[in-house]
Amino acid sequence: MTSIRSRLTRLALLFCLIGSISTPGCGGSSPAPTAAPPINEEDKAQITAALPSGVTLDSPIGADPMLGPNSKTVGEALTAIHAHVKDGKIYDGALGRLILFEVGGKKPPKPRPVRGKETEATTTIVVKGG
After folding, report:
1. How far apart are CA 73 and CA 69, in angstroms?
2. What pLDDT, in 10s, does the model give residues 84-106?
3. Which of 27, 40, 53, 115 lies most in the core, judged by the most C-beta atoms within 10 Å?
4. If we measure between CA atoms, which residue out of 53, 68, 44 comes closest to residue 101?
5. What angle do CA 56, 126, 76 make, to 5 degrees?
């Protein structure tokens, strides 16, 4: 007869063995992060039209890790956060936040709350030299 302790030890070893086997699509190591795909031409045209006056996709921005650690321009930042246009406004594709632009040190106006709704969450991109 085997003791309960030896059965538990065998069971624990079995679970460790099963847990160490990685099958395709289940667990295992995750692939290294890749760069965000570029904005397609249709979306780029919509985004360009929604940018505030004096801001282009090539405008330099202040460093902000939330906008992509290597983003140096408005276009790179919007690509990194998978930006899209909805109702003529630019939104963060991952968080769903409205994107605002601070140009020339002038803070953007916060969206006004609509009666019965919470104020819309925002992300601000600081444009340098605007």
Report:
1. 11
2. 999 999 999 888 999 999 998 77
3. 27
4. 53
5. 50
